[in-house]
# Entry
Amino acid sequence: MYIDTHCHVFSEYYDDIEKVISECKDNNVNRIIVNGCDIVSNKEVLELVNKYDIIYGAIGFHPTELDDFNDEYFSFLEENINNSKIVAVGEIGLDYHYDNTDREKQIMVFRKQLDIAQKYNKPIIVHSRDSIQDTYNILKEYNLKGSIHCFSGSVEMAREFIKLGYKIGIGGIITYKNAKTIKEVVKDTDLAYILLETDSPYLAPVPHRGEDNNPKYIPIIADEIASIKGTSGLDIARVTTANAEDVFDFSCKKWYN
# Structure
């Protein structure tokens, strides 16, 4: 069994979510965590987790989606965080990629979401682009666990996040020929600290690069990690599933269809 710990399976991107779910099951991807980024996608997360057995959710506000952000959104998080199929606060973090970035606002929103996660004892799913040192410095101040999504830092930074209690999210980029740094990270990192993710519909693995990504491609990512680590895809499935279960609470027994 595989778990996709980070994807965006929304009606905006997929015409037939029923088909996505069916294809996941056909490819032994038995759980997926759909991550919200703004108020609209977070509300859809809540709808999806109540409709599909294999979908779990993370709700949060992405650092590049804050133009219309207001304090009522923090209340929304608190009102919905204890839904039994919401397993994390995410996708949250920092993104300094664009020149017009309001870093102070990003940091404020990030910190307040971390406060909520800590208050309710929820893991977090962290986005960090061109901001890894600030992300690390802030997370050091909290007692949280979770995933550093789509990790793009160095081997040394991966080790530091692991020391804080985080696991490293590995997606389709690992299959790209020029992705030398992340391949080095995977080679250096014990499997006990690796999570599988697709970030669908983005960053599809080879041989689907350039197409819309899909959670059903998780086994491709697992096989590439297996090749780097000198083990089998089945072993990657076993270990990374245990890792995800260690981070996220999948114990909800009530399904809605």
In short: DSSP finds nine helices and eight strands in the chain. Confidence is low (pLDDT under 50) at residues 253-257.
